[in-house]
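[audit] Reproducing an earlier prediction to check determinism. Same input, same settings, fresh worker. If the tokens differ from the archived copy the diff job will pick it up downstream; this log only records the rerun itself.
[audit] input (182 residues):
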Amino acid sequence: MTTSFISMDVSTGDQWAQIGVETVKNQSRVADRVLAMLESLSEVVDGFAVDQLTHCLQTATRAEQAGADDELVVASLCHDIGKAVSVPNHPRIAAEILRPYVRPEVTAAILAHQDFQGRHYYAHFNMDPNLRDRYRDEPWYDLAEQFADEWDQKSFDPDFPTETLAHFEPKVRSVFANPHVL
């Protein structure tokens, strides 16, 4: 069912209630779109030893093996999803996709993950490898450090036994089924 208004300033509460019902009914498309964006990362290599989908799968596999909860595993899977659109601001894209569906500290860790990764490569670009230190007092610092150092930066290994996207699909569907905020 569709509404009939052609301009929001003439819409009614009943029309917005219908839009709300339709939005909830179609919430599953969020997971469908996220999975499609993840699949598209198989085309993004950019000089790494593995494509970005494999990198994301390896990161999520490591998070799952470490006992991370579903929100953190899905965030680990989606941390570089922004590279399907733009490499320079990929952390912000990923964090904004995840924000309504995961805890604030998970969103913050994903948003800052590039600066945490910088410890491992920023010096090669004459950048400060200790940029993560500016987040030292944040309550999510340890989470971001674990994510970057134990899961993300190690996940470029073509020989690492990696779970498939199909393995993670139920978690993706579960996490993206229920937004915490709009």
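[audit] rerun output stored. Observation attached for the diff report: The two ends are 22 Å apart (CA to CA).
[audit] end
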